[in-house]
Amino acid sequence: MKKTKNNFIEISIKVAEGNVLKNLGGPFGAVVVKNGKVIAAAGNSVTKKNDPTAHAEIEAIRKAAKKLKTFDLSSCEIYSSCKPCPMCLSAIYWANIKKIYYAANSKAAARAGFRDDFIYKEFAKPAEKRKIKEAQQNAPSKNNPFKLWKKSQQKVKY
Ligand SMILES: [Zn+2]
């Protein structure tokens, strides 16, 4: 029987539950789907891997890209047990994933102690009002990598 959107969301939630029950990381799961088939499923493994970027969506994207042998997942959709955080949302854009489905929202994640909602609010502020300050260092060579890239005959565009 063909799987539905609800089936894929249920899989992402089951992965998230398993992650908590097996103490593998945060309560999040994600599934990358192509043509109605699961390509990759992954849970959050931040604490297990000591990797602050090892969110479920990022882990699922890495697995899917490896499996499909491409950095372009434009033929895929992602299902997540919770609304992707800003980092994962960016990763989804970089992967060209065409659609996002999620179950819980950022407010629910905040109630469980996660900062997704806080980071969304931070990004909506002008840079000078954010908690983490940023400053451009005006190095004379700052645009050299781009000049080299534009001239490169061997680059793989993405
Ligand atoms: Zn995330």
Automatic annotation (TrEMBL):
Biased composition (Basic residues): 148-158
GO biological process, one term: purine nucleoside catabolic process
Positions of region (Disordered): 131-158
Classification via PROSITE patterns: CYT_DCMP_DEAMINASES_1, CYT_DCMP_DEAMINASES_2
Polar residues biased stretches: 135-144
SUPFAM superfamilies named in the record: Cytidine deaminase-like
Ranges of residues in domain CMP/dCMP-type deaminase: 3-117
Pfam families recorded: dCMP_cyt_deam_1
GO MF term list: guanosine deaminase activity; zinc ion binding
Record keywords, A-Z: Hydrolase, Metal-binding, Zinc
PANTHER family on file: CMP_DCMP-TYPE DEAMINASE DOMAIN-CONTAINING PROTEIN (PTHR11079:SF161), CYTOSINE DEAMINASE FAMILY MEMBER (PTHR11079)
Family: Belongs to the cytidine and deoxycytidylate deaminase family.
Stated name of the protein: Cytidine/deoxycytidylate deaminase, zinc-binding region
Natural source organism: Endomicrobium proavitum
